[in-house]
Design goal:
Elements lengths: L6 E6 L5 E6 L10 E4 L2 E11 L4 E8 L12
Parallel strand pairs: 1-5
Antiparallel strand pairs: 1-2, 3-4, 4-5
Length: 74
């Protein structure tokens, strides 16, 4: 029995910028899950599965790093 592989495409949520295509992605991330890509952390915001073309579109947004404030010494 052969299994067909869906093409997985990652898009940046706000600008809809194409980031990277994966073929044969073992696990599809869930909404709200964090993934590490291009040396940055991203959060999955939406997952769409287009059955007609066997494609999964994953929309992600960059997780902004909070600036560490120096503790003030009293």
């Amino acid at each position: 029995m052969s299994r067909e592989v869906a093409k997985v495409v990652l898009w940046e949520q706000n600008q809809k910028d194409f980031l990277k295509k994966f073929y044969d992605l073992q696990f599809v991330p869930r909404i709200g899950e964090e993934i590490y890509l291009k040396k940055e952390k991203w959060k999955v915001t939406k997952v769409e599965h287009d059955l007609e073309v066997n494609e999964i579109n994953i929309y992600i947004e960059l997780i902004k790093k909070a600036k560490q404030d120096k503790p003030s010494n009293l």
